[in-house]
Amino acid sequence: MTQLKGKSVYLTGGASGIGRAVTEAFIAEGAGVTVLDRSVERLEELKNQYGDAIQCIAGDVTNYGDHVGAVRTAVEAYGKLDVLVANAGVFDGFAKFDQVSPEALSDAYEMLFSINVKGYFLAAKAAVEELKKTKGNIIFTVSGAGFYPDGGGVWYTASKHAQIGLLRQLAFELAPDIRVNAVAPGGTLTALHVIPPLAPFVKTVDNETKARSIKTRNPLRIAMESEDHVGAYVLLASDCARAITGEIISSDGGLAVRGLS
Ligand SMILES: NC(=O)c1ccc[n+]([C@@H]2O[C@H](COP(=O)([O-])OP(=O)(O)OC[C@H]3O[C@@H](n4cnc5c(N)ncnc54)[C@H](O)[C@@H]3O)[C@@H](O)[C@H]2O)c1
């Protein structure tokens, strides 16, 4: 387990779900990981569990200064920065466009795009100079919603398409110094948070129903867990992927080969 030995990684949203599973896998592969998250309690848990292999920063991905502080911490702790994983995100709960009031639509847009889209712009901007020094790489967590309808509502789906646009342009502009790729998980059993402006327009779903729905929507019939995606991140972060940029690995149980049924 040494594919990322000596690498310094900055990851957003690592206190929970997919980001947490990736953090744990990266540490197991020998990396030092700096995590920015807004959940102070869960960051403390991670620090207690991993000690010197992790640096935990409480902050918000919509604030550029928080990213700058996290990058500085990563460089101070591990001497450099090799990898950025922009991952923190929020959800719209499949809220229906025609049922949401114009005020809620606008508030939801501001909040969700600030976190899901601007959060990725700012993370990349804060990391770019350090990544140039190491010829490092960037990985975005996108989603099946970056390609297909019905992975969320309009806010989430549009934000995931925007992340893919950012990924492609950055891969073009930052070559040959920095590789830029993404992992697109399908529906996964996590605590992905529905933003408050849309909460009144969304039905709460229990975990069992969610698992059944995810399982029936992908050809491999998997109710995916966060750990199911980590192999794709380890590959893209590692030197084994030195010829890969501008790519998106779908880790979604085969959404692209769904037929009509
Ligand atoms: N769960 C799914 O079905 C699924 C599918 C495809 C893609 N994704 C994507 O995976 C990524 C991670 O989501 P998850 O499902 O693991 O959810 P999660 O809620 O378990 O994890 C998200 C983490 O991001 C943090 N976060 C949210 N907003 C933040 C902010 N403004 N500043 C700092 N930290 C913030 C949360 O505190 C949390 O720790 C997201 O980009 C999401 O869109 C999730």
Secondary-structure topology with pairs:
Elements: E1 8-12, H1 17-28, E2 32-37, H2 40-50, E3 54-58, H3 64-78, E4 83-86, H4 102-134, E5 137-141, H5 154-174, E6 179-185, H6 207-217, H7 230-237, E7 248-251
Helix pairs in contact: 1-7, 3-4, 4-5
The structure holds nicotinamide-adenine-dinucleotide.
Describe the structure.
With 261 residues, this protein is an alpha/beta fold. It has helices at residues 17-28, 40-50, 64-78, 102-134, 154-174, 207-217, 230-237; strands spanning 8-12, 32-37, 54-58, 83-86, 137-141, 179-185, 248-251. It has a seven-stranded parallel β-sheet with strand order 3-2-1-4-5-6-7, sandwiched between helices. Helix 3 (64-78) packs parallel to helix 4 (102-134). The longest helix is centred in the middle third of the chain and has 33 residues, at 102-134. The protein has a single domain, classed as 3-Layer(aba) Sandwich (Rossmann fold), CATH 3.40.50.720. It contains seven helices and seven strands. It is globular, with a radius of gyration of 18 Å. Nicotinamide-adenine-dinucleotide binds at residues 13, 15-19, 37-39, 60-62, 87-90, 115, 141, 143, 185, 187-188, 190-193.
Quickly describe the structure.
By secondary structure, this protein is of the alpha/beta class. It has seven helices and seven strands, in the order E-H-E-H-E-H-E-H-E-H-E-H-H-E. The protein binds nicotinamide-adenine-dinucleotide.
